[in-house]
Structures are given as structure tokens and as C-alpha cells.
Amino acid sequence: AYLVEDPYTLRIERDPVHDEVTVAVIGGGFAGLVTGAALKKAGITDIRIIESGGDIGGVWYWNRYPGAMCDTAAMVYLPLLEETGYMPTMKYVFGHEIYEHARRIAKHFGLYDNALLSTDVAALDWDDDASRWTVRTDRGDVIRAQFVTQGLGPISRPKLPGIPGLASFAGHSFHTARWDYDYTGGTPSDPHMDNLADKRVGIIGTGATAVQCIPPLGRSANQLFVFQRTPSSIDVRNNHPIDPAEFAKLEPGWQKEWLRNFATLQSGGFADEDYVKDGWTDIAKRIRDKVLAHMAEAGESGADPAELMQRAYEESDDEKMTEIRARVDTIVQDKATADALKPWYRQLCKRPCFHDEYLQSFNLANVHLVDTNGQGVERIDATGVWANGVHYDLDCIVWASGFEVHLEHNSKYETTGRGGLKLSDYWADGMRTWHGLQTHGFPNMFIIGMCQAANLISNITSNLTDAGVSVAAIVSHALETGAAKVEATAEAEAAWVAQFEATTRGFLGNPDCTPGYYNNEGRAPTRKDLLNASGYPAGPVAYFDYIEQWRNRGDFEGVDFR
């Protein structure tokens, strides 16, 4: 249990809060921040953020491991850059800069005012007679709110690997989302971990997190053992500083234009220019161009468009993955290590990674790849790790096993709506929403996420920012018209959900892939899985266009104000 405690902020006891607010914002990550900012911009000031961490920032509060950064370019990933007047330092910024930007947003929009930090929500209950939500917390707070937003993020809860003997290790261990700098030395902004100079360190996991923290670990530890089940796909990052002169040329409204450009290209559309020019748009443009080439060849033959798309995807993927495997050979000096580091699956089977130092780390004499040929670590004992029948004595184990991934809304507390209806029961067979935001039977409540909406996985904050604008528009209209209850109609919700029943446009990938959250851990998707991972069938850009037009019409079709 200690592995999920907050090591960064001391929890200070305080008196319980008993009061009422207009909007309670549950979750202080980017979902809560951009929603709070949109509400403030709409003139709604009586807002309270409730956050379990010791500060706002969400996953970027927790992810302080050395080398942490986002794989999406800062110009589109960091929200509200224009509003806060901030220029990112690099194309891809480190986690400590992202965390500071989250704090910048909170300060700029006054979202620290009335915020309750180091506070977990325990229950959320609707009072239909009073038209208010009651939020109860683990601090004894009882807060009444006219409206509630829930933005808990898809990756908020650390996950540990299911390895026998995990709790028996007598050395030091911690999860990457709870990095122990007291033990390792260094800081998030200066990861020279001098305390590891005499330590044998093992890291379990080679996903996106491990790819980022292995280079600084390799430079610091006496010996580093990297336990690999499945190699990651490592493409070029080509990070570089942002040019202040070029940044100064950007005209008002530039970030919305960049977001549109990125979403268009990343989802296979066309634009005169690629503003971001990254691995995400490169993948999408390759597939798009091969589809067009095959369609031109097919001509009037009547070839199945789905078959053309599949062939184009496979050919462009073969091309890209051949490049990625060839890159390993040009960097990693030991042939056996290089071969073990080559991903053998299609790129989108697992989250693509981009890094300019990871592969180079395996040329260091003190860094050892322990490849398990897909089997993973066998077991753990008091002194170390067993893999491939060999025991590795270790002083420290780093769990780089990521987070529990919940694309749908997921919470540790229960949300109870009208008539005692529990959200967990109502969604037992899958999410049921209107626009991915509202749910019938749960008035004045909004879910801030991606599913049953744009579902733009390559830039999650784009989804959140747009959802926040929708919430602010709906709440503003309710307050202006004096509506006590705002609720999606049953008919609108049913029609919205119906379009996801048979959709293949989701986040479940290929069942032939190596298991991971990109393909539902290798399991065939159920109806619930489809509903919980689906995006707007016409794609993210179409959703953003649709919802913007819906907001601007002002009639809020599908929503009952009463």
C-alpha cells in the first residue's frame, strides 16, 4: 500500500469543510484545469477543485521520474498557451515543465482559490428535491454543488505487475509515479542520481515510462538491469528548443489552428502544411498516401475500400517498422542486444515511443538488457529478481509498470443519481452518454474525457479542452435561464450510444498484437469494451466540428433544461 502514498506532499490535517459551491470540479489534472478555466472565462467564478494529490497537475504531479516527458509536441499538448502567455522551451518538454504549466493555469485562472488538495472524494450523491450534488470526502467534508464535473483521467492509478513474490523483496523499491529521490538523489529537473553510484538497480518494464527513465538511470547506477518482456518501438524524437523569434510570429488564435491541423493530419486528413511534424503525423500521412495510391490503382475495379485501407496500413507499417528495426542496428553495438531490442509487431500494437537516448543506453558497460522472450520476470524474492532461470541480486527495484488504463470514466467512489441510480450499475454494460459528456439520470453532472466523443488518443488534452468549453456553455445557459436541472434526454442518449454499437473506430487495435492496453490486453472486445473505447464514427475532427456547431446554435438539442 505504501507504493501509492503521496511522497511529494505532507498531508496536513485540517477541519472539515461544509459549504456550497456552484461547480465542484473533481480532479485537478488537465481535465479539471481546462474545465475550470473555461468556466472562469464564461464568468462562473464559484468553483472548487477537489484533488487527491498534494497539488494540481494530475498525472504530471505524480510523474516526476527522471527523464519524464510527453510524447506529444508541447505546442499542441500544453493547453491554454495563448491565454497564459507561455512559450514551451522545447518541442517536447520534460515533465517538470508540464507540471509547472499546470500550476501556471491554476494561478492564472484563480483555480487554487477554494481548492481542496490531498483530498479524496468518498461519495457523490444527487439530491433531486434540492437539485444539488453532495460531495463527501475522506476528510469529512460535505460540499453541496449545483453542478459537478468529473475528470479523473485515463491513467491516474499506478499499476504493479502480477509477479509472484513481489512483496517479499527486502531491498528498496518504488513505482515510477512515486519516484523516491531521497533514495536515488537528484531532482526531476536535475536527474543526476549520485546515491545510485554503488547500487545494483533493476527496472521492470520497457514501455513509454521506462524508455524515458532508463537513460538517466544508466548514467547514474553502478549496474542497471533492464527486464524486458516485449521490446518497445523506438522512433526518432529529434527534440530541439523552440525558436523565440518564430514563436513571436504566431498570430492570435494560433493554438486552435495548430490543434486542428494536428488532429486533421493525425486522423488521415489533408492540410497545406504539417505544423507539428512529428511521429504521429508521419504514421498517419504514410497510411493516407498509400490508401490514395491503392485507390488510384483500383480505379473502377470496385475494390473493397476496407481491403484497400487494410493493405495500405500493413504496407506503411512494414515500411515504418523496417526503418525502426534498422535504426536499432545503427545504434546498438552488441548484435544480440540489438536483435532483442527490435520490435517484431506492428507499430500501433503498442504505444509508439520516440526517444534519442534510450537505445544508446545499451552501449554503456553497466547497462544490461535481460530479455525474457515475451515471458516476463518469473518471480521475486528477498534479494532480487528471477528471469530466464537466473537470479539477479539487486539493491533496488523500480516498477515501470505504468498505470491502470481506463479510457472510460472510472473512480474509487460511487456516483448515485436520481432515484438512487448508481452510475456503476447504469454503465454495467458500457458507457451511456450524450456527447461523451452527460448521462441521463444524472442531472447537472459532466464527465470530462475522450470516449464516445473525439477520442483523439495522440493528444488527450485536445479532447479535454474542447469538453471544458462544452461544459461552460451548458452551465452558462442553465444559470442564465434559471434552470435548476440540466440533463441529457433518454432519447438523445440512446441515439448517441447506438452509433457505437457496431463501430470499429475505437482504441482496441488488433487481436493478433502482443497484449497491451492498445488491444484490450489481447482479449476480443465485448459490447462493453466497444462502448467504453469508441470515438465518434466520423473521426475526431468531425466530432470537434459537430460539437462546436451544436454549442453555437444555442438550442442545446438533446439536453433538457428545467
Identify the notable features of this structure and list them briefly.
562 residues; alpha/beta; seven-stranded mixed beta sheet; 17 helices
Oligomer: single chain
Rg to the nearest angstrom? 24 Å
Number of helical segments with 4 or more residues: 17
Shape: globular
**What is the mean predicted local confidence, pLDDT?**
92
Major sheet size, sense and barrel closure: 7 strands, mixed
What share of residues are in beta strands? Answer: 15-25%
Give your account of this protein's structure.
This protein has 562 residues and is of the alpha/beta class. The protein is built from 17 helices and 21 strands. It has helices at residues 30-41, 59-62, 74-77, 81-84, 95-108, 181-184, 208-220, 244-248, 254-266, 279-298, 305-331, 335-340, 423-426, 460-481, 490-498, 527-533, 540-553, and strands at residues 18-26, 47-50, 121-127, 132-137, 142-150, 157-158, 172-175, 200-204, 223-228, 234-235, 353-354, 367-371, 379-381, 384-387, 390-393, 396-399, 403-404, 414-416, 445-447, 486-488, 559-561. The strands form six sheets. Strands 1, 2, 3, 4, 5, 18 and 19 form a seven-stranded mixed β-sheet that branches. The longest helix is centred in the middle third of the chain and has 27 residues, at 305-331. The chain is globular and about 70 Å long. The relative contact order is 0.14.
Describe the SSE topology.
Elements: E1 18-26, H1 30-41, E2 47-50, H2 59-62, H3 74-77, H4 81-84, H5 95-108, E3 121-127, E4 132-137, E5 142-150, E6 157-158, E7 172-175, H6 181-184, E8 200-204, H7 208-220, E9 223-228, E10 234-235, H8 244-248, H9 254-266, H10 279-298, H11 305-331, H12 335-340, E11 353-354, E12 367-371, E13 379-381, E14 384-387, E15 390-393, E16 396-399, E17 403-404, E18 414-416, H13 423-426, E19 445-447, H14 460-481, E20 486-488, H15 490-498, H16 527-533, H17 540-553, E21 559-561
Parallel strand pairs: 1-2, 1-5, 3-18, 5-19, 7-16, 8-9, 8-16, 9-12, 10-11
Antiparallel strand pairs: 3-4, 4-5, 6-17, 13-14, 14-15, 20-21
